[in-house]
Amino acid sequence: MLPYPRELPPRLRLFVAGDWRSLNNPSAEIRQAVHSAFAGGRPDVRVWFSDDEIVGLVVTG
Fold it and tell me: What is the pTM (predicted TM-score) of this model?
């Protein structure tokens, strides 16, 4: 995992329901869980959102 530049806050962008959704300032644990799920080849990432903002996230797999 690459660190974010100091001038930019961490953010996840996920393509959900036909559009890009954002989760601003996710914890290092959330970023690692999402990365691991996709790197493992069988991601199961469930997302709840309001407009373009992610309000809930469950990662398994």
Answer: 0.68
Q: Are strands 11-16 and 19-24 parallel, antiparallel or unpaired?
A: antiparallel
For the chain, what is the HEC assignment? Answer: CCCCCCCCCCEEEEEECCEEEEEECCCHHHHHHHHHHHHCCCCEEEEEEECCEEEEEEEEC
Tokens 């961490």 locate to 10
pLDDT tens for the chain, 61 residues: list them.
Answer: 566 567 777 888 888 889 999 998 899 898 888 888 888 777 888 899 999 899 999 987 6
